[in-house]
Amino acid sequence: MTSGAASGRAWNKGPIMTPDQLERYRQQLEGMRVRLQGDVTSLSGEAFRQNGGEASGNLSNAPLHMADLGTDTFEQEMSLALLETEERRLELIAAALTRIAEGAYGRCSECGRDIAPARLDALPYTPVCVECARTVQRDNAQREAGHVPSPGNL
User: pTM of the entire structure?
Assistant: First the structure.
């Protein structure tokens, strides 16, 4: 017996969901995309602002105190981390919108099974079902713990 992925996504050949359901998810994803694009613009401004000097109201480019510089640096690093996360989420949303256009939305990209509606309601941009997400998380955790060599370390 072959798996859905190995047999060319043979699990479910019929439509994954109704046109109305697809439209509801498409609208939800579009709304998320617009909101996140605004967040990314705002975070970009915070992440790439200058520390100390004229940016903080000083006439010289030296911060008032080393602790101020440390705080500015921490805030900038936090903004960069958030920016990276939001940009990744925008990529996932764009991919989900592409899957809707191609008729593949709601089907797991790993095993080919339908993704549970509750999962799509919680994470409408997810490309994988719960079971495959658990497998990926477990594999990543083992790799980070040093139990499984990553492909780059072979």
Answer: 0.67
Number of H-type helices and E-type strands within the chain: 4, 0
Give Cβ neighbours of residue 95 (< 8 Å, ≥ 6 apart): 125, 127
pLDDT tens per residue, range 19-29? 999 999 999 99
Which region, left, alpha or beta, applies to residue 16 given φ > 0 means left and ψ of -120 to 50 means alpha?
A: alpha
Write the CA distances from 93 to 2, 11, 68, 121, integer angstroms: 31, 24, 37, 13
Domain ranges of the chain: 17-105, 106-154
Work out the angle between the directed axes of helices 66-102 and 19-47 (0-180°, nearest 10).
160
Distance of CA 153 to the CA centre of its chain: 25
CB within 8 A of 57, min separation 6: which ones? none
